[in-house]
Amino acid sequence: MTEPLLRIENLHKTFGKLEVLKGIDMTMERGDVTSIIGSSGSGKTTLLRCINLLEDYQDGVVAIDGDQIGYRTQNGRRVRRPERQIAAQRAMTGMAFQHFNLFPHLTASRNIMLGLVKVRKMPAAEAKEIAAHWLTRVGLGDRGDAYPGQLSGGQQQRVAIARAVAMAPKLMLFDEVTSALDPELVNEVLNVITDLARDGMTMLLVTHEMKFAHDVSSKVVFMHQGRIAEAGPPAEVLRNPKSARLAEFLKGAKF
Amino acid sequence: MDFAAFLDQAWASRNLILAGLGRTILISAIAIFFGTILGVAIGVLLTYGNIVVRFVIRIYTDFLRGTPVFVLILACFYILSVAGVDLTPFQAGTFALALFCSSHVGEIVRGALKAIPVGQTEAARSIGLTFPQIFRYVLMPQAMRQILPTWVNTATEIVKASTLLSIIGVVELLLTIQQIISRTYMTLEFYFLAGILYFIVDFAIERAGRYFERRVAIPD
Amino acid sequence: MDYNFNFAAVWRDFDLLLSGLALGLALAMVSIAIGCVIGLLAAFGMISRRRLLRTVSSVYVTTIRNTPILIIILFTFFALPQLGVRLGKIESFVLSLSVYAGAYLTEVFRAGLVALPPGLREAGLSIGLTEFQAKRYVTIPVMWRNVLPSLSNNFISLFKDTSLAAAIAVPELTFYARKINVETFRVIETWMVASLMYVITCYVLAEILRRVEHRLAIPR
Fold first, then answer.
1. For burial by CB atoms within 10 Å, which of A125, B102, C119, C122 has the most?
2. pLDDT tens-digit readout, A105-153
3. Do B82 and C188 touch (CB under 8 A)?
4. Strand order in the sheet with A93-96
5. Burial (Cβ within 10 Å: 0-12, 13-18, ≥19) of residue A235
6. Confidence grade of residue B32 (pLDDT, cut at 50, 70, 90)
7. DSSP line for chain C
């Protein structure tokens, strides 16, 4: 049996006394598109952030391509990896944030180039070409010299996605990327993600867009109070919820 | 009040005045330069240092900020000589000004770094940058732009505070002027001239700061 | 460094230092009170519709803010007599510090006034208050509470500036510290005690003023 791209086993995460993740198990194969749904406080964003090690986790395993993220086991003990290694591991995953988090002092193109030049050690000219390529892919080929403050929210989010995918991550993480956008700007961002999914990119999304989750995902995961409550193909999970809780959560959603 | 006589005297003393002005600028430049370097280090440690480091640095800055500059200058001047560090009044005074500058810059830098949204660091981490890289390419460029106006203000404060070095006998612009006054008895006129010269220096610094601000401004 | 600490000399004259500290506080309080009056008038001048008032106010603020305070102090004490204005040391210093404070407070008050919603004054006028009454009972009280934090900072920095009164031999804390320093050669002890007195006073003042701000804050 080959190692899945993403393997999460018995993941536990606490903030002080509050247990946010109470033992998560999940796997993703290459090319999978998984959507995580659930009410706020269910732990879905925290799960995503643990995979990128923006949050430490207290117990369990998060492994990408067989590499445990952030920790290794030494003589049966869990040891945090040195920061340098963690930084390199973070570059295996790409992350798009709810609030874009573009670097305001860099142009769209330079936002994308920064990681390529400083992490991938690419010559600037090559990085610039890749930036131009991805900006075109997200429909902003002519805005490379614009600063984030000169772009609309939807455009900023598309640049932020381009910045993440340009690093050629093995897994893309999307954290409620449309929640901070005006309704009329949501579709331009969803279209970019759909386009990337068609390309075969492995993606894990936290989203409130049920129709989008239904149309684009190969699997939907419903989280509730720090646990995975239901998981399966979108048609099954979204159309025939097994629990009353999920049925309640889905009430009124159209897809 | 004989204006022509004043102009005569001022013209006759022009070389002295220019030398004093030069020394004032030199003192300020040295103090601002070293004070800024030290201040950035202080600001970084106040923001990212562990609790012990933060505590020690906090005491240092609070002490410096609670002490009047004049007392700081006198203390450096008198104490360093007793402590066996043989400094000229020029050196002791400039050192005191640099310390004063560092505590202010430290506070400004800390404020600016704190004001950067945490999402910036997270986004930088998520593309695999290490902390030194994040600091250099993401945090500092943003903090620097925010600091600039306040920093320019601090620079003009240092120029004004440099007048206090006259009291420990450094022949900078103010003491030069006082020496001329004691010879000519044109108190009003020459203090006025001193005021104008300081005004010009501060004004120039402010203008340069504004120009520089515009140059590095992020378009939006 | 072989230096034998001996605080006895400093303790012997500690009452002098304390009286100096008290004088410094008194000077700062009187000056900020006068400064507030000047600042308020100049602030209304700054936002006045009459061009002359605007010009006069902004020339005052710009000139004073760009002139080193030591020059203002020396000018008032040594140069004004040339114009027939003779003041005692303390009066002269209070005048200097008030004029100096006024310029900084003008900016504080102006910003406070500009930040008020225009509807406030209009509401006052609409219930039949005169322009003066609307200022007296509506705009100024609201603005006052908003600017309290800046006022506190200004007061603390004015208190530190009273150390400069030593330059014209006003017997405040720094003056006595220098005196003790010269007479006893207990250099390190003297300056340690003097600067600690400043630091602690500033700290206590900040704490008191913070509580006052809290008490006076408009509930919301």
1. B102
2. 999 999 999 999 999 999 999 999 999 999 999 999 999 999 999 999 9
3. yes
4. A93-96, A171-175, A203-206, A33-37, A219-224, A227-232
5. exposed
6. very high
7. -------HHHHHTHHHHHHHHHHHHHHHHHHHHHHHHHHHHHHHHHT-S-HHHHHHHHHHHHHHHTS-HHHHHHIIIIIGGGGT----HHHHHHHHHHHHHHHHHHHHHHHHHHTS-THHHHHHHHTT--HHHHIIIIIHHHHHHHHHHHHHHHHHHHHHHGGGGGGGT--SHHHHHHHHHHHH--HHHHHHHHHHHHHHHHHHHHHHHHHHHHHHSPP-
Residues in chain C: 220
- Which of A98, A118, A159, A174 is the mutation pick for testing B, counting most B CBs within 10 A? A118
Most confident of C2-11, C49-58, C82-91: C49-58
Touching pair C, A by Cβ (3+ pairs < 8 Å): no
Q: How far apart are CA C140 and CA C135, in angstroms?
A: 6
CA angle A30/A31/A32 to nearest 5° reads 95
Q: Strand, helix or coil at A5?
A: coil
In sequence order, what DSSP letters do the residues of A36-50 get, joined into one string? Answer: EE--TTSSHHHHHHH
Closest residue to B123, CB basis, from A88, A101, A119: A101
The ranges assigned to domains in chain C are 8-216
Domains held by chain B: number = 1
Residue C2 has pLDDT above 70, yes or no: no
Complex-level ipTM? 0.90
Write out chain B residues lying below 8 Å of C67, CB-based: 160, 195, 198-199
Six-digit token string for B31: 């103090």
Tokens of C103: 């310029």
What is the C-alpha separation between C220 and C217, in angstroms, rounded? 9
DSSP E strands: which ranges in chain A?
Answer: 6-15, 18-28, 33-37, 59-64, 67-68, 71-74, 77-80, 93-96, 171-175, 203-206, 219-224, 227-232
CATH of the domain at B142: 1.10.3720.10
Show which residues on chain C lie within 8 Å of chain B, measured between beta carbons: 1, 3, 63, 66-71, 74-75, 78-80, 82-83, 160-164, 166-167, 174, 177-178, 181, 187-188, 190-191, 194-195, 198-200, 202-203
Give the C-alpha separation, A185 to A180, whole Å. Answer: 10
Q: Which residues, 6 or more positions from A206, have their beta carbon under 8 angstroms from its beta carbon?
A: A35, A36, A37, A44, A45, A47, A48, A174, A175, A176
Could you tell me if C172 and C24 are in contact, meaning their C-beta atoms sit under 8 angstroms apart?
A: yes
CB A10 within 8 A of CB A61: yes
AA letter at C65: R
| Calpha distance B143→C102 (Å, rounded) | 32
Q: What is the DSSP letter of A91?
A: T
User: Cα angle at A63 between A57 and A65, to 5 degrees?
Assistant: 160
- C-alpha separations of A148 from A105, A109, B219, C30, C142 in Å: 8, 10, 9, 51, 38
Range of the domain at B101: 3-216
User: Which among A238, A230, A245 is positioned nearest to A213, based on CA atoms?
Assistant: A238
Q: Which CATH architecture has domain C8-216?
A: Orthogonal Bundle (1.10)
Determine contact, residues A161/A146, Cβ cutoff 8 Å: no
Q: How far is CA A128 from the centre of its chain?
A: 24
pLDDT confidence of residue A198:
92
Average pLDDT, consecutive stretches of 10 residues, N- to C-terminus, chain A (255 residues)? 88 92 94 93 92 91 91 86 89 93 94 94 96 95 94 95 95 94 92 93 94 93 94 92 90 77
Band the pLDDT of B219: cuts 50, 70, 90: confident
Nearest chain B alpha carbon to A52: B126
